[in-house]
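# nightly structure sweep
# worker-07 picked up a monomer target from the shared queue
# config: single-sequence mode, recycle default, output format = structure tokens
# input follows
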Amino acid sequence: MAKPTKLAKLVKYAKTCWISMALRLSAKLMLILAAIVISCQLLMSSYYVWSTSEQLLAQHRQHLNSLKVTMARAIAIDVWNYNPESLQLLLAPYQNDPAIRQIFVQANSGPKLLLDATPMQPQSWLLRSFLSNTGPYTEAISLTLGQQSNEVGTLMLQENQSYIEQLLLDALARQFLELLILLSLLAGGLYVAFNRIVLQPLKKLSVSLSAAISDRTGIVANPLTGLQDEFEEVALSIVGLSARLAGDIQTIRDTNASLQHAKEQTEQAMRELRQAQDALLQSEKQASLAALVAGVAHEVNTPLGIIITSVTCLESELQQLHQHMQQGTLTKSGFQQQLQQLLQATELVHNNAGKAAHLISNFKLLAKEQTDESVRWFNLSEFVNELLIAYQLDQQYVGLQWQTAVQPDIHIKAVPGLFHQLLSGLCSNVRLHAYAEGTEGQIIIRLWQDDTHIHLSCMDFGAGIAFDAQKQVFDPFYTTRMGQGSNGLGLSIVHRIVRSNLQGQIELFSAPQQGASFVIHIPRQKPD
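# output follows
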């Protein structure tokens, strides 16, 4: 890696100094004053050079005009006689004049004389625009003979302005030094005055603001009391603003304290509300459990009562049969009659025991579905189609007109038997509640999927469900046909499977005499 050069270090140092100066008002003031001094210096120097150059050029022209007249008179006789040696002697003193570069003498008789005087120096580009050549300067050489003036030749002078440039440079140096001293004194005085009038009050105000920031009250003390100028007015405004802000800050603090207290009260109320909700939920659970137990007891009590009555009848008939056998009074007709009664009682026991077992089985499904099947991926579309074909051949659904719309190739990871219980519960609900017994009706089963869910719906156009009853249709043992073939567990089992086993949702859309529609939404799963 190349090391930084001295020039790069100097540029970096200059940038650092510039940045540090730019952050200070005093540095900005110094730059402004320096710019003013330089501008004034340039303007005044330009004006001084112009005015001085005009004055020196005027003197230069006057000198040459006077000089040519004097020289023409002095050399008139020698020009008439044309004596070059004498002319050179007469013109020699003028060759040292700094204003003359060349002397040219032309006699009317023909001879010429050219003499070089002071050599011309190259002009400075700075002063070139202020000086302008005005030559050559020509004068006729006349000689009076017999009271008659006769022109005997011509005198021509080539000017030299080099000495004027040197005079201008000397004068400009003096003027520049004088102006520099004057403007420096003026800038120094302005800086001192600005520092006293502006910078010091600003520093005091800055110190006071810093102290107010450190102070908890935040009120600014007036550091410029007695100035009676604009800075004191600004300071008073800042003091008033700080007092107002301090009051607002205190108000905010008080408000925050009140909000904190209100927050704590709200949190306490929320805790109490949660406790009340937990207590209410526990109470509702107990009430639901009591209703469930009462429903189970009511449903199971009927077949158990019949079983007990039948067993009692069996016991009585067997005792009578045993007594007749011991007494020897048993006849064939009597034995056949008692045997017929025993068979009837046994059939009652068998039928009602089956009903009780079915009720207990449904109750177990309501509590938690039990199945020997394992969770696996399967084609739900094919499974539903097979179930619907079987249901259409089932005698309990005679009279129903089936319409199905099953989207193909829908796969799901679940227990297949759960969907058998779902469809069986929904279709049995339609057969028992949507249409009167012995009447025909229509049932529509749809299965489809979107990007997030699998949807299963069962819709009918039957009696519908009353609005006040829709809140209870999924409650265990709730039915509008108690004792008419319904035990109130079908939709409860459906709801339990959807919510607990499939982690889905079930919706009911119904109105009296407008049919009912159950729509199940099951979240889709990604393949393993």
